[in-house]
Amino acid sequence: HGAMSVVPITTIAMISNSILHQTRRSVLSATSIATQAIHQNNSKLSGHAVTRSRCYVSRAHPPETKLIFNIGDALKLMKEQVEERKEKRAAKWENNTDKRAAKGKVDDGPFRNQDETVELALNLNLDPRKPGQALRGSLSLPHGTGKKVNVAVFISDEQDDDATIASIKSAGASHVGGASLIEDITNGTIPVTAFDRALATPDMMPFLSKVARLLGPRGLMPNAKVGTILPPDEIVDGVKAQADGIVQYRTDKNGIVHAGVGKGSFSEEQLAENVQDLMNAIQDAKPENYGKGKKNKAGGPGKGKSAPKKNEKYYLKAHLTSSQGKGSYDIDLRTLDPTSSYFMTVPPV
Question: What is this structure's pTM?
Answer without folding.
Answer: 0.71
